[in-house]
TrEMBL record:
This is Histone deacetylase. Pfam families: Hist_deacetyl. Residues 18-288 form the Histone deacetylase domain. Keywords: Hydrolase. Belongs to the histone deacetylase family.
């Protein structure tokens, strides 16, 4: 059975003007249930894995500032959200969801987190709608607890996984791959183990050719025993923050390349959703739902 981390807290209520990015966390589960892709018992509310795994990856001083709501105005502004206890708890729960989804993936081959993919959070600060980095925390959890020896992070969000690159740069058992819009946010890119910068307007055909050219050799060379997949749908041509030229069909083919490779190579994979900012919420939901449909078709 496909297991999916979800909590009502994922759709944390925000002040007017900050609501849009959160809508999909309510609508996507409803769509998956309505069409019969999953059933109610596919969803799980994340367990609490404790603060030790947050401060294992993030600096203690930073996490204390989050808990105490003592970030400076400049630090808060960089996150993109008004800071609150509820928002911090939401980020903690998302992180717990990704860790637990990783454990389900070990048992079932694949698992998902409706939220997650918070790849702009650094060890000592938050940026770009990200306060805690669930990808880096999950990779470190798997390695530290000997659930995995070689974790491959495949980040195909349109924005570089800058925080993930910084947080895992000294971990030889993790390999970070980020394929993103070269001219897009963040202006200053960190150094991943492999960075692939794409030109504005990159089409489906170009994108998929470049992905296959780089992804398959990494699988052969690194031989991962776990994959964390950040599958943001802000690669769509319709995305107001994306600047690439991909269709929903092309985005689905992108996901199929990654998921099918994991299945064929018998590598457990955890998928976290990442970004999506198309003006029509239906486009965002459809593109994300395709990832879940593929997971069901390929693994179950």
């Amino acid at each position: 059975m496909l297991k999916i981390a979800f909590s009502p807290n994922y759709a944390h209520p925000l002040p007017e003007g900050h609501r849009f990015p959160m809508e999909k966390y309510e609508l996507l589960p409803e769509q998956l249930l309505y069409e019969g892709t999953v059933k109610e018992d596919s969803f799980f509310v994340p367990d609490d894995f404790g603060e030790e795994w947050i401060i294992y990856s993030h600096e203690v001083a930073y996490y204390e500032k989050l808990k105490n709501l003592s970030l400076s105005k400049s630090e808060i502004r960089k996150t993109g959200f008004p800071l609150s206890h509820a928002l911090v708890q939401r980020e903690v729960q998302i992180m717990n969801g990704s860790i637990q989804a990783c454990l389900f993936a070990i048992d079932h081959g694949i698992s998902m987190n409706i939220a997650g993919g918070t790849h702009h959070a650094f060890s000592d600060r938050g940026e770009g709608f990200c306060l805690l980095n669930d990808i880096a925390v999950s990779a470190n959890y798997l390695i530290a607890n000997q659930y995995a020896d070689r974790v491959l992070v495949v980040d195909l969000d349109v924005h570089q996984g800058n925080g993930t690159a910084q947080m895992l740069k000294n971990e030889p058992k993790a390999f970070t791959m980020s394929m993103h819009g070269q001219a897009n946010y963040p202006l200053h890119k960190e150094v991943s183990d492999l960075d692939i910068g794409l030109a504005d307007g990159t089409s489906d055909e170009e994108y998929l050719e470049i992905l296959e050219k780089h992804f398959y050799p990494i699988l052969d060379a690194f031989q991962p025993d776990f994959i964390i997949y950040q599958c943001g749908v802000d690669v769509l041509k319709s995305d107001k923050l994306g600047r690439l030229g991909m269709s929903i069909a092309g985005c689905k083919m992108r996901d199929q390349i990654v998921l099918q490779a994991a299945k064929v190579n018998m590598v457990p994979i955890m998928c976290c959703m990442g970004g999506g900012y198309s003006p029509r919420i239906a486009d965002i939901i459809e593109a994300h739902a395709n990832t879940y449909r593929l997971a069901q078709d390929l693994f179950f």
